[in-house]
Design a protein that fits this description.
heterohexamer; A mainly alpha (524); B mainly alpha (503); C mainly alpha (123); D mainly alpha (263); E mainly alpha (107); F mainly alpha (81); A: 524 residues; mainly alpha; two-stranded antiparallel sheet; 22 helices; B: 503 residues
Chain lengths: 524, 503, 123, 263, 107, 81
């Protein structure tokens, strides 16, 4: 059975989703156990797959048994890079599933099965994207995850959320179309869709690699992915979409969607076009790094201007995407930028999860959506605040946390590559994060309102933006506290663990980079 | 020469105050036990430090490795106690006990809120300070440096009113901001240049590197500004802002722990990272010298115009810190020794002055110098101590300040920097100009100082001192200022030893 | 040959009616007349063209046993024509009706009595 | 106005870049183009499909064999996309109405009993056409091996037939035949059928969706025929899901999730 | 072969005859006119598909979706007609109206 | 692939796209979008992509227009022209 791991990885959530839809009809209470069980199975599978990758090497899986010639069937692939990502996705999904207990069920219980069904299908899509070894198959799974995320975002009852979801649908569709056009162009020039095969063909035929159509294909794929990941000029959809949707959706989407897109970008750069091809002309990479610099600055500064906690976090995501894209495009000699970028995918997933969970709990239990509502939160919710502080410190980049080490690698790459502007942007962003979060700490720590915040008053104008008009519900219907605190603290612990064991993780990433033949020369 | 002793003493010294934190929190209702635990921790800590003293005086170095190697970076977290570290640790831990006593008096006298939080974070700050003092490599140094910034922030913002919050925000933004913006890239750059070696053991980290002039200057400035607790001029304004803190905090942290950690880091950078030879060969130290000199003069001039006593003290501190930086940057034997001595000298003197300011506030509620005329009659001990403290800071006999300043001036002269020597002298005059009038006015008030001046005759009935818990410490430190003038051997020996170690 | 000529004739006729329908769609004054032209003309011409091709398929027909695929095609083409015959007028009717409900005013020539006014809303 | 200018600019730039890339393409239908003939050193995938697919699968329509067998994994997830779209629509729109709506329902049902001749004509036509459409849809599903068509197209047509039913009479008329419960179940069952073919293959020791090993279960002559039969089963699964979701989307969309008083 | 050319000619003619419908689409004046034009083009498409099938000589393939068109083409017009029914303008004499559709007023 | 058809259909496609974007009435716009679907189907058919054309035919004729109209039905009708 162990050779079936890649298939199990996508099939388990699929069957979970189907089961939830089927059984959830009768009784909404079975939805969560099914979801959690499914995700737990997936987590075990992901860990098993990762273990197998690190012991025996890359897992190649040919769906339908169509192995030879390569490219006629669909190729799934788990290697040292995405094995880690799989585990990260599984962990995030598993944790968020706890946070989503009874979230949706409170107001409109009949939507519970749909929510969990979408939830599981989103996970399915993300797993599928991660293990896809086929350019078109990747597109299909991007569609699965996009469609489900549209649904998850629009599920809230607020008008602004619906509008934001609509914007997201438009942008997401444009992004997917761009990607598809790029893949089409690529297919026309190479005659195959398998990533590995495309790479081989481009390596063997310089005239194809040099052709205009391939460059344009790359451009379109890149822009399509950038839209999906909300890279700087194309980031407009993200803040509204993630801040006005239900908290549990935000907790799932914010840590995963953009990071997966970054992963796809790096995968396309390394496995399809190849590092040497991408960095053939330095003009490209300089431009992208500058864009990343602007993204970081714009994201940070806009975050500074926000009054709502979630929205602020959303703008920070925009900045973080700038980190990762910039890092991937640094093109320094020893690939520390790329390494940092890959490590940051994992670190940022955990950081974002932690912060969004905390923001979700603040919003849910204390109805504190604006930063000014957080007064005295350290006293009102000490445990949640500790989780929030860990996430925030990681975001700032304080040493034992994962955030510090990703920044360390990125800065190292920037220094090696001579991209000082990127280093400066990273530092400014850290600075802004520090200012932002310490402003929050100050409010939360020294607030003089231990018992009564104005968030408790009814009709304070937040209902229409909220995912749930909680003021209508008696407090007894609130979900159990552990449902929020358990995932929050776990994610906080993971941030620390990721930081403490960063050397091992980076080691795995380097293993992957070394396994690519065209990169081995860079790494001795 | 480097004969090292492996021992866990520094760890225990560092942990002593940290371990007191749970006790302080547990006994938050029983005030007596709470303060007892503070004092116990203080004495235990001092005991550990003193226990290390003989080993250091033998010319040995104590090392401990806490974490073998941080994954990914391959830099251990280690302690390494040398002469400079033990000197600083000695000053900080002994003054902590005094300050605790003073803090008890001050906090009770003013009936402050959240005293438990106050003492708890105080203890954490002390741990961080000792961590910096004993840090064995740049990363450890940086970690404890940041820990100190974070741990002192609740102390600065203790009052929780608008002014305190603003001050706290400035404090944090400046300290964290500069450390993120300058120190981290400088550390990473050093790390890359030195191939992953950040340890202070052995020769200086960058000693063998062929660093160009411009990178060296940039790196030096990045460190100097990055460790902005040292208060060099463009990044000094956190210090006056942080004066909103309760006076014990200002006293210990802004005369001893925090600011001294800043200059301590700069000393470590100059001696441990660049090495004296490299800097001298490149001539990069002069840039730092002149920035420090500028700070000295400017801050003294600003201090002259301040009416709030604590603000005047704050600007004075900025100037005095730059003495130390200047002394180190001169790279000459006497100057470096003077700088190291000045850490102790200034600490003792300035803490006295802050204690006095706090005592005055507790007793009379006065904050401004213009209100303090004639106070000597009312608070004779306090104002006498103030006088002695100001002597120490100015550098007049009989005080330890004279010794350190003498070394500094001598060092400047020996190094051939006559202009910088002149800077020292001018600033001494300025120091005198802004301190001595306070004492003078206190004892011999002029007619129209407070409008309703009464007779100048002294009587014990008019004495309304602060609570004894406030007065005893300040008298003690004032005595210390004078006493060390007569018995400076320990500190002289340590500073000498330090220069031998880094030469 | 006869089959080809027949089919060409049918197709040609269909094309002509297409032209008529197109002209009607442009030239007629109001919605009802235009719909009339388009509905009737298009249905008829579609029928004719498809029947023309239907006839043309018979060209290769040899026996029921051997050329049943052609028969199938012919059947389908006939089906198409039948369904166009059913559905196209239905949709035209539905649209006319909707227009009437939607109070689209027909254009009445000057001097003629407007019969439509009498029974409006009677249905 | 400015946004329009920017939008136009973006479209023009994108379009011109695409057209610029087109100049580099092989001619339309060129048999020597990389997509058809492959590039030197690597045989084209389409070449393989053209020459080998009938032998591999015994399905004359190679599009079907590519979709349902060689790239069956893609097709399965395309079906999942449809299913996800349906779930998203339910999640966003579906509301369980409150009591006061039931009165409106009764009023509305009375609306169409008063001899509306428009209803008569349209209704009669639909009553004639809908069975034919459904029959045709089944034909399309089943005949996908030999001619264009297959599960998706057939499913859409089948779904459209229910929509026509709803349009001609009333949504309730269609919902009576295809209730909410049944379309949800059928949508799920469709994907389950598809996935079952893959999982059973897995259980028999082959990779996911490797239909060849299903031979003993399907009682066929060889793995090729097993593939052919499995493809039919898979197409049926797709058709189930597509039919159900298409109708479900219409039913929810036209009534804002109330499933009554619709278009 | 000549018949293929003839078919191409017919196809082109049918395509060109879409032009008046396009014109009707642009100028309007009512939504219904546009819908009629859509209907016309839809019918023509079904015919064109057959013609293309004949030109390619693979009628058996193309006829399937011509049939689909013929069967499904009226769905759109039907929906539009229903739409106009349900959203008809306020009547001149309200009492002669049919009972109004409730879902419109709901929103 | 027949060049004459190609050109005419492509021109019509552009016209249909522009009209459907520029029309104010949402119902008309969605109906005209249906034409776009027809033309796309024709284009694919005459390019020989029969399966794709079939899909487009069934979806374009049977589903997409209806769904758009149903959506427009739930918006407020803006104008009648």
């Amino acid at each position: 059975m162990s050779d079936q791991l890649p298939a199990v990885l996508v099939l388990a959530p699929l069957f979970g989703a189907l089961l939830v839809t089927l059984v959830g009809w009768k009784d909404h209470r079975v939805c969560f156990p099914i979801t959690a069980t499914t995700l737990f199975v997936t987590l075990l599978t992901a860990i098993a797959a990762a273990y197998q990758v690190f012991t025996t090497g890359t897992i190649d899986y040919f769906v339908g048994g169509w192995e030879e010639p390569i490219g006629i069937g669909i190729h799934l692939r788990i290697d040292a890079l995405n094995a880690l990502l799989l585990v990260a996705i599984a962990i995030v999904a598993f944790l968020v599933s706890f946070f989503s207990i009874r979230r949706i069920g409170e107001k409109n219980a009949e939507k519970t099965p749909y929510f969990y069904s979408l939830f599981l299908m989103l996970c399915l899509g993300l797993f599928g994207i991660t293990i896809a070894g086929d350019a078109f198959n990747l597109f299909v799974l991007v569609e699965v995850s996009s469609l489900t995320s549209y649904g998850l975002i629009a599920m809230g009852s607020s008008r602004r959320g619906t509008l934001a979801a609509f914007n997201y649908v438009l942008m997401g569709t444009v992004g997917a179309s761009f990607y598809l056009i790029g893949v089409g162009y690529l297919y026309l020039k190479t005659g195959t869709l398998n990533m590995q095969e495309i790479h081989t063909i481009m390596g063997a035929n310089p005239e194809i690699a040099a052709s205009k159509a391939v460059s344009i294909a790359f451009l379109f794929i890149l822009i399509g992915i950038w839209i999906k990941m909300a890279f700087f000029p194309l980031h407009g959809w993200l803040p509204n979409a993630y801040s006005y949707c239900p908290s549990s959706s935000a907790c799932l989407l914010a840590p995963l969607m953009t990071k997966i897109s970054v992963y796809v970008m790096i995968r396309v750069m390394l496995s399809v076009f190849g590092y040497d091809w991408v960095f053939l002309s330095p003009g490209w990479s300089n431009l992208v790094v500058w864009l990343a610099v602007i993204a970081i600055l714009v994201g940070s500064i806009l975050a500074l201007a926000q009054r709502e906690l979630k929205k602020m976090l959303c703008y920070l995501i925009v900045a973080e995407v700038g980190y990762m894209v910039g890092g991937a495009w640094l093109a320094d000699k020893e690939l520390w930028g790329l390494t940092g970028s890959l490590y940051h995918i994992l670190a940022d997933a955990m950081m974002t999860l932690c912060l969004f969970l905390a923001a979700g709990i603040f919003a849910k239990r204390f109805r504190a959506r604006e930063i000014s509502d957080l007064e005295g939160m350290f006293r009102r919710a000490p445990v949640v605040s500790i989780g929030f502080v860990v996430g925030a410190l990681a975001m700032i980049g304080v040493p034992p946390t994962a955030g510090f080490f990703s920044k360390f690698y990125l800065i190292r790459g920037g220094m090696d590559a001579g991209h000082w502007e990127f280093v400066v942007a990273l530092l400014i962003s850290s600075l802004v994060n520090a200012v932002l979060f310490f402003r929050i700490f100050e409010i939360a720590f020294f607030g003089n309102k231990p018992a009564e915040g104005h968030g408790h008053e009814e009709g304070d104008g937040h209902e229409d933006e909220a995912d749930l008009p909680l003021s209508k519900n008696p407090p007894t219907s609130a979900p159990p506290a552990w449902a929020g605190i358990f995932p929050l603290l776990t994610s906080a612990a993971l941030i620390l663990l990721l930081g403490i064991f960063n050397g091992e993780i980076v080691g795995f990433i380097r293993v992957f980079l070394e396994s690519l033949p065209h990169l081995a020369s860079h790494l001795q | 020469m480097e004969n090292t002793v492996s021992s866990f003493l520094p760890v225990w010294a560092c942990l002593a105050s940290l371990l007191a934190v749970p006790l302080i929190v547990i006994f938050r209702k029983e005030i007596f036990l709470r303060e007892l635990s503070t004092f116990t921790a203080g004495f235990v800590k001092l005991g550990f430090v003193i226990a290390m003293l003989p080993i250091i005086l033998e010319g040995k170095v104590i090392t401990t490795t806490l974490v073998p190697a941080i994954s990914g970076i391959n830099v251990p977290i280690e302690f390494r106690v040398d002469a400079l570290g033990i000197l600083f640790a000695l000053v900080a831990s002994s003054l902590w006990i005094v300050t605790s006593l003073y803090g008890v008096g001050y906090m009770r006298g003013l009936k402050e809120h959240s005293q438990t939080r106050f003492f708890a974070f105080f203890a954490v700050s002390l741990s961080a300070t000792l961590g910096v003092a004993f840090a064995g490599n740049l990363l450890t140094l940086y970690l404890f440096y940041e820990m100190l910034s974070l741990a002192t922030w609740p102390l600065v913002t203790h009052h929780q009113d608008k002014e305190a919050r603003t001050g706290g925000r400035t404090y944090l933004v400046f300290l964290l901001g500069t450390s993120i913006a300058f120190a981290i890239p400088a550390i990473i750059y050093t790390y890359l240049q030195a191939d992953g070696d950040l340890s202070f053991a052995g020769p200086a980290i960058l000693a063998g590197n062929d660093l160009g002039y411009l990178p060296a200057v940039c790196l030096l400035l990045a460190f100097a500004f990055g460790f902005s607790k040292a208060g060099l001029m463009p990044f000094h304004s956190w210090l006056p802002g942080a004066m909103v803190a309760p006076t014990p905090v200002s006293a210990l942290l802004h005369a001893v722990a925090v600011v001294k950690v800043g200059v301590f880091c700069v000393i470590r950078v100059v001696t441990g990272i660049f090495g004296i030879d490299l800097l001298r060969d490149l001539g990069a130290n002069l840039v730092l010298c002149w920035i420090a000199a500028f700070t000295v003069i400017t801050s003294s001039l600003i201090a002259l115009s301040q009416d709030s006593l604590k603000r005047r003290l704050a600007f004075s501190t900025i100037g005095q810190l730059s003495y130390i930086v200047l002394g180190v940057a001169l790279l000459h034997e006497f100057a470096v020794e003077g700088a190291v001595l000045h850490i102790a000298a200034h600490a003792v003197g300035k803490i006295t002055l802050f204690f006095c300011a706090g005592a005055i506030f507790v007793a009379t509620g006065k904050k401004y110098i213009s209100q303090m005329a004639g106070l000597g009659k009312q608070m004779p001990f306090t104002m006498a101590a103030f006088f002695l403290g100001s002597l120490g800071v100015i550098g007049l006999p009989p005080s330890i300040g004279l010794i350190s300043k003498f070394h500094l001036v001598l060092g400047a002269a020996e190094a051939g920097q006559i202009a910088l020597m002149v800077v020292f002298l001018i600033s001494t005059i300025l120091n005198a100009a802004y301190f001595l009038p306070i004492s003078y006015q206190a004892f011999f008030p002029s007619k129209d100082a407070e409008g309703d001046l009464v007779d100048t005759k002294f009587s014990w009935d008019a004495v309304r001192e602060a609570p004894p818990a406030c007065v005893i410490p300040l008298v003690f430190t004032a005595c210390l200022t004078v006493g060390l003038f007569f018995a400076p051997n320990l500190f002289l020996e340590l500073s000498n030893l330090f220069f031998e170690q880094v030469k | 040959m006869i089959i080809t000529i027949l089919s060409v004739l049918l197709i040609g006729a269909g094309t002509v009616f297409f032209l008529g329908a197109a002209v009607g769609l442009v030239r007629f004054p109001d919605f009802y007349t235009r719909t009339h032209a388009a509905g009737k003309g298009d249905t008829l011409s579609s029928l004719l063209v498809i029947l023309g091709y239907c006839v043309y398929q018979l060209k290769d027909f040899e026996s029921f046993g051997e050329s049943w695929p052609i028969l199938l095609v012919i059947l389908k083409l006939l089906g198409i024509s039948v369904f166009i015959l059913i559905t196209s007028p239905t949709s035209t009717h539905a649209l006319m009706d909707a227009g009437w409900e939607d109070k689209v005013e027909p254009t009445i020539q000057e001097g003629h009595p407007n019969h439509l006014n009498d029974d409006s809303g009677k249905f | 106005m400015l946004s329009k200018v920017f939008a136009t600019l973006a479209v023009v730039i994108t379009g011109s870049i695409l057209l610029y890339g087109v100049t580099d393409f092989p001619a339309f239908g060129d048999p020597k183009s990389p997509a058809s003939a492959g590039v030197p050193g690597s045989e084209s995938v389409s070449q393989y499909f053209i020459t080998e697919s009938y032998g591999d699968t015994k399905v004359p329509n190679l599009v079907t064999s590519v979709l349902a067998d060689y790239r069956g994994y893609d097709t399965m997830f395309e079906t999942v996309v449809i299913f996800a779209a349906g779930m998203a629509i339910f999640a966003i729109l579906r509301v369980v109405g409150d009591e006061k709506d039931s009165r409106k329902k009764r009023v509305e049902e009375n609306t169409f009993t008063n001899g509306d001749h428009s209803r008569i004509i349209v209704g009669t036509t639909c009553r004639i056409v809908v069975p034919v459409i459904q029959l045709f849809a089944l034909y399309v599903i089943a005949h996908g091996h030999h001619s264009p068509g297959g599960g998706f197209q057939g499913g859409v047509i089948l779904g459209a037939s229910f929509i026509i039913l709803a349009l001609s009479d009333h949504l309730n008329a269609a919902l009576r035949r295809f209730s909410e419960k049944s379309y949800t179940i059928i949508a799920v069952v469709g994907i389950l059928i598809y996935a079952a073919f893959g999982v059973v293959a897995q259980l028999l020791g082959a990779n996911f969706l490797d239909y060849g090993v299903l031979q003993p279960l399907l009682f066929t002559d060889g793995p090729e025929m097993a593939r052919s039969h499995s493809m039919l089963g898979v197409e049926i699964g797709v058709a189930f899901t597509v039919t159900a979701i298409m109708f479900a989307i219409y039913a929810n969309l036209s009534t804002r999730g109330l499933l009554r008083n619709g278009l | 072969m000549t018949f293929e050319y003839f078919s191409i000619g017919v196809g082109l003619a049918v395509l060109i005859f879409m032009l008046p419908a396009m014109w009707r689409l642009t100028v309007g004046p009512t939504a219904l006119d546009r819908i009629v034009a859509v209907n016309v083009i839809g019918t023509k498409t079904a015919v064109l598909l057959v013609i293309i099938g004949v030109i390619f000589g693979r009628v058996e393939m193309f006829v399937d979706f011509a049939l689909a068109y013929a069967l499904l083409n009226f769905t759109g017009s039907l929906a539009a007609a229903r739409f106009l029914h349900k959203t008809k303008r306020p009547a001149v004499e309200p009492e002669k109206e049919f009972p109004t559709e409730s879902s419109r007023t709901e929103s | 692939m027949i060049l004459a058809f190609d050109i005419v259909i492509l021109v019509f496609l552009v016209i249909a796209a522009i009209i459907s974007l520029s029309v104010k009435d949402l119902l008309s716009a969605s109906m005209i979008y249906g034409i776009y679907g027809f033309l796309i189907c024709l284009l694919w058919a005459e390019m020989g992509a029969v399966d794709v054309a079939f899909t487009e035919a069934s979806v374009g004729a049977g589903i997409s227009t209806v769904l758009l109209v149903a959506t427009v039905f739930n918006t407020k009708r803006k104008s009648s022209d």
